[in-house]
Amino acid sequence: MLVQSLNLLLVCVAFTSASPAHLHRRVVKSLNEAATAEAHTRDDTATRAFSDTAIKTSDGQCLFVDELSGDFRANLNPIGVAACDGSAGQKWDIITKGEHISVAGAALFVNTLTQACLNFDDRRAEGNKVIMFSCGGRADGEGIETNSQQIVFDGGAEPQALTPLNAPGTCFGVKGTVLDKVACDQGDATQSFTFGGAGGDAGAEPATPVEEDVTSPSPSSPSPAPLASPSTAPVDSCAGGPQ
Questions:
Q1: Nearest 5°: phi and psi at 18?
Q2: Which residues pair with 56 in a beta bridge?
Q3: What are the backbone dihedrals phi and psi of residue 98, each rounded to the nearest 5 degrees, phi first?
Q4: Which residue stretches of the chain are H helix?
Q5: Per-residue pLDDT tens for 94-137?
Q6: What is the C-alpha to C-alpha distance for residues 141 and 180, in angstroms, rounded to an integer?
Q7: 178-182: long-range contacts (C-beta < 8 A, 24 or more apart)?
Q8: Rounded to whole angstroms, how far apart are CA atoms 90 and 93?
Q9: Quick one: which of 2, 15, 27, 207 has the most CB atoms within 10 Å?
Q10: pTM higher than the cut 0.85
């Protein structure tokens, strides 16, 4: 009887470990305020195609971030999918030009609650490759630019796929209640996203993008930092490396 019970327990553990929906994720009771402020600084000079907007799935749900679902400075958080309610974690800035992006045809997807960037890191475990991370790619906030955070973006509000520049052929799609890596498929509705409103009304029309250029660069402004190579990935300061 004891052996049968043990075998059943092992089967359950194996199933849980193999299922992305049941992956163990970091959860903290509180953030280190000083470290979080250092890791995530709002770029007030950036050009924003959308500010405080919702990112909606094809079935009208919203992408969101729980600031306590990552590490002590709000890095490594998964991107959840839930009913739109207009909460702070469901608001995003879509940045097309700024301190951490200088390439055309792409954008940073910055959560306005944490000021972290949507990020793709293929070194991490399956089901945990699409995460939030300090913009620029360093956990301490000292990074400049990484293409793991630069998402193909055409500037409009119409339905579109989300593809990171560091992984051509890879798209983000809804798997259960999280955003995850999928092979791009134009016929897959779970890979289609729109921008619009504050997220409180799932049936609202997509917002009209407005380029918000806060500052105009002066002739003496420094040249943008060179784009990181495709192999560049965020630096995770946590012991044990990517998970």
A1: -85, -15
A2: 62, 194
A3: 170, -165
A4: 2-18, 33-39
A5: 999 999 999 999 999 999 999 999 999 999 999 999 999 999 99
A6: 24
A7: 178/20, 178/21, 178/78, 178/79, 178/80, 178/81, 178/127, 178/130, 179/63, 179/78, 179/79, 179/80, 179/81, 179/130, 180/20, 180/127, 180/129, 180/130, 181/120, 181/122, 181/126, 181/129, 181/130
A8: 10
A9: 207
A10: no
CA-CA distance, 54 to 89, in Å (whole number)? 10
In the structure encoding, which two tokens stand for residue 54, read together?
A: 């919702």
The residue behind tokens 């495709």 is: 230
> Who's near 111: CB < 8 A, 6+ residues apart?
65, 89, 91, 92, 118, 132
Q: What is the mean pLDDT of residues 219-225?
A: 32
Place of tokens 């306005």: 112
Using CA atoms, how far apart are residues 83 and 79, in angstroms rounded to an integer? 13
**Extended beta strands in 124-210, E state:** 130-133, 151-152, 170-175, 178-183, 193-195
* 200: DSSP letter: S
